[in-house]
Predict the structure.
Amino acid sequence: MNQVIKLLIELGPIVVFFYANGQYSDENGMGGIIPATKVFMVAMAISMVCSKIFLKKIATMLWVSAALVGVFGGLTIYFDSELFIKIKPTILYTFFSVTLLAGYAKGKPFIKTLMEAGFPPVKEIAWMKMSRNWGLYFAFSAILNEVLWRNLSNADWISAKIWVFMPLSFIFAMSQMPIIMKHQIEEADED
């Protein structure tokens, strides 16, 4: 049940953003990002409150994402420019990529801190491999976001957040399962 709640907390704000953009856009799909950003900011705050209530904590990734939504959403609204909310994912993905790859280079799998509670016990080599892989994935996602927001309409870019990034993230996460299975620590290994 906690995994379902966690998924709703993580995906809820982007789904709300997608829906709000559709509600506020005109018949040509224009004009919805600014009001949708306001709704997105509120949805992020609600997501954090729900995380604290239902999961008893707010994950580091949620804190970072909420901070960036607050800053870039605020800039979007203040300057009345969609640019800021469009580059927020690029900055978030770049931050995660640099953090994970720097940790990997130093032999410190920072991803372990973020994900350890959701996985069975695994050997350190698995955390190192996943830090490298996720770091590269986030670098790819940052580049992909830049290409998409610069070449798609607002409505298509927002749709890509749901129909491209979410499936890619799920597929990539599933592709990491062999690493976890290969390096899982069995009960006998712990003795």
Observations:
- The mean pLDDT is 88.
- The helical segments are 2-24, 33-55, 60-79, 83-105, 111-115, 124-151, 154-175, 177-182.
- The chain has one domain: 2-190.
